[in-house]
């Protein structure tokens, strides 16, 4: 288990069991599915970050299965405030992306 998870709720048996059940019921990445691609979900993500709130942490309605790529992109967007995704033209599609500021 990753070192950073040992003191978090993700490291306990309750979470591991809940995660396993959720991913067995929702095996595909929710973000990939939106664009018509079937990719196996490996991470149970909180749609709204729980920040220690037990209702958001354990509320299944706040969970979604994501692949590692989509989860990483979502986390990065939450941290920096914009998506790194680009359109077919190679330009960032998020209007909040720093590239699009002042355009």
Question: How many H/I helical runs?
Answer: 4
Structural class: mainly alpha
Strand residue content: 5-15%
* Lateral arrangement of strands in the main beta sheet: 1-2
Outline the fold blueprint.
Blueprint (H helix, E strand, L loop, with lengths): L12 H13 L4 H5 L8 E4 L7 H5 L4 E4 L1 H13 L23
Antiparallel strand pairs: 1-2
Description:
The protein is mainly alpha-helical and 103 residues long. The protein has one domain (3-100). Helices cover 35% and strands 8% of the residues. The protein has 4 helices and 2 strands, in the order H-H-E-H-E-H. The chain has helices at residues 13-25, 30-34, 54-58, 68-80; strands spanning 43-46, 63-66. Strands 1-2 form a two-stranded antiparallel sheet. It is globular and about 50 Å long. The protein starts with 12 loop residues before the first helix and ends in a 23-residue tail after the last helix. 9% of the residues are buried. Residues 1-7 have low confidence and may be disordered.
Give the gist of this structure.
The N and C termini lie far apart (45 Å). This protein is mainly alpha-helical and 103 residues long. It has one domain (3-100).
What labels describe this entry?
2 strands; 4 helices; two-stranded antiparallel ribbon; mainly alpha
